[in-house]
Design a protein that fits this description.
This protein has helices at residues 12-23, 32-45, 93-96, 111-130, 155-163, 211-223, 263-274, 300-316, 363-376, and strands spanning 51-56, 65-70, 79-84, 100-102, 105-107, 139-144, 167-170, 180-184, 186-195, 199-200, 233-241, 247-248, 251-260, 284-293, 322-325, 339-341, 348-349, 357-359. With 378 residues, the protein is of the alpha+beta class. The chain is elongated.
Length: 378
C-alpha cells in the first residue's frame, strides 16, 4: 500500500500502514512464539522515545507482556493504557482474511479487536513525545498477551498497575458506530462434571444411571437462571458425554458462561450455579468455576472521565456517545477502584469473524482523542 508524504501527524493512511504490519503478524493467544514476535516489534518502537520498556515473561503457555513507561511523571499516579496483542484467529487465517482495503474499510485478522486500537495507543504516545511539552501525568502502556482467554496470566499485573493509576484508558474497539464503553457485564466461567453408572442399553438398562440424562436436568436448571430483562445470561456452550449409543453414559460434562451487570447479581448467580445438585440417585454432579471478570459499573469517577473525553471529542469534531456492553475486557479489572474509559480503539465491525474490519475514517479522530487525553488529564 503506497503511503504519500504528509505533514499531518495523524494521517490515517500512514497510521494504517503501521496497523497493517501488526495485523500481518498473526498472534493467536495459543501461539506464544508469535505473540512474542509482535511484542519484540512493539518494544523496538519505543527505543527512541523517552520511555522504558519492561518485558514480563509469559507463563502457562502464554506470551510475554510489555510495560512501557514514560520517563516523566513516575512519582505520582498517572495514566494507564490497556491493550492486548493476542487475537482469536488461528495461524493461517490471514489467507482467508488477508489485509485489504475496500472503500472506508480495512480488513484483517484482529484489525478491529484490537490491533487497530493498540497501535493507536502507541502512535498517540509517540506524537506526545515529539511535542514541546510533556503531559501533566506520566503514561504507562501495558500490552498483554492473553486477553482473549480471560487474561489469566496478566490479571495480577493489570490490577497492580491499575491500583497505582489515576486513570485507565482501554483501547478495545468502539461499539455501534463509534460509541465509547463506560460499563461492561461481569463474566463467569464454570465446568460441570457428572458421574453416572454405565450399563448395556439393550440388555440391562435398569442397571444404569445416565450422566447425559442428568446433564439435561442440569442444563434446564442453568437455563432457568436467565433473566434478559435484568441483563443476566447463563449459557451452556459446550457439552460432552458418553462413549457409544448402546451404552448408558457414565460421564458427561459441560462448560458454562455467565454474564451479570452488577456485583450483587454476580454474588447471587455464582452461588446458585456452584450449588447445582443432582436430581438422580447414584449420579453425582460437581460444579467448579468462578467470576472471571467482575462487572465494570459506571461510577462517578468513570462518568467524569467520560464527560472530559466527550468535550475533547467535540473539539476534534465528532460526537462521543457512551454505551454499556455485555462483553468483558481488561477494564473490568480496574473500573471498581480507578476511573476507567473503554472502547477507545478504532470503529469497525466483525470482531472474531471472517469479515473483521476497521473503518479508516475512524483512525484519525480516535488517535487524536487518545493524544488529547494524554495531554489534558490531570
Amino acid at each position: 500500500m503506497p503511503i504519500e508524504a504528509t505533514t499531518n501527524p495523524f494521517d490515517s493512511r500512514t497510521i494504517l500502514g503501521g496497523i497493517r504490519e501488526w495485523v500481518e503478524l498473526e498472534t493467536p493467544t495459543e501461539a506464544p512464539e508469535q505473540v512474542n514476535r509482535l511484542a519484540s516489534l512493539v518494544a523496538d518502537l519505543y527505543h527512541d522515545l523517552p520511555a522504558t520498556v519492561q518485558r514480563v515473561a509469559g507463563t502457562k503457555g502464554c506470551g510475554d507482556h510489555l510495560v512501557a513507561r514514560s520517563s516523566w511523571g513516575r512519582d505520582a499516579p498517572g495514566i494507564l493504557v490497556l491493550s492486548h496483542l493476542d487475537t482469536v484467529h488461528p495461524i493461517g487465517f490471514i489467507k482467508r482474511l488477508p489485509f485489504r482495503i475496500e472503500g472506508d474499510s480495512a480488513f484483517g485478522p484482529g484489525i478491529y479487536d484490537m490491533k487497530g486500537g493498540a497501535y493507536l495507543a502507541y502512535h498517540a504516545f509517540r506524537q506526545l513525545c515529539t511535542g514541546a511539552e510533556r503531559s501533566p501525568l506520566g503514561v504507562t502502556q501495558l500490552y498483554v498477551s492473553d486477553e482473549e482467554i480471560g487474561s489469566p496470566t496478566s490479571r495480577a499485573l493489570i490490577e497492580a498497575e491499575g491500583s497505582q493509576a489515576k486513570y485507565v484508558l482501554v483501547t478495545e474497539p468502539a461499539r455501534d458506530g463509534g460509541k465509547i464503553v463506560t460499563g461492561r457485564k461481569g463474566v463467569g466461567r464454570f465446568e460441570v462434571n457428572i458421574k453416572g453408572q454405565p450399563a448395556h442399553a439393550g440388555t440391562r438398562p435398569e442397571d444404569g444411571r445416565s450422566a447425559i440424562r442428568e446433564l439435561a436436568n442440569v442444563i434446564a436448571t442453568l437455563e432457568s437462571m436467565n433473566d434478559l430483562k435484568r441483563g443476566i445470561t447463563v449459557n451452556v456452550g459446550v457439552v460432552k458425554g458418553g462413549t457409544r449409543p448402546n451404552v448408558i453414559a457414565e460421564e458427561a460434562s459441560a462448560e458454562v458462561d455467565l454474564r451479570v451487570p452488577t456485583m450483587a447479581d454476580a454474588s447471587d448467580l455464582v452461588a446458585r450455579i456452584l450449588d447445582v445438585k443432582s436430581r438422580t440417585d447414584g449420579v453425582s454432579v460437581t460444579v467448579t468455576g468462578e467470576l472471571n471478570r467482575p462487572p465494570y459499573e459506571k461510577g462517578n469517577a468513570g462518568a467524569a472521565l467520560f464527560e472530559h473525553a466527550r468535550h475533547l471529542a467535540a473539539e476534534i469534531g465528532f460526537d462521543l456517545v457512551d454505551t454499556f456492553t455485555g462483553g468483558g475486557s481488561d477494564g473490568n479489572f480496574t473500573a471498581a477502584h480507578t476511573a476507567t474509559l473503554d472502547g477507545l480503539g478504532v470503529d469497525g465491525k466483525g470482531a472474531h469473524t471472517h469479515y473483521e474490519q476497521l473503518y479508516i475514517s475512524s483512525i484519525e479522530p480516535r488517535a487524536r482523542l487518545l493524544h488529547r487525553l494524554y495531554q489534558t488529564l490531570r
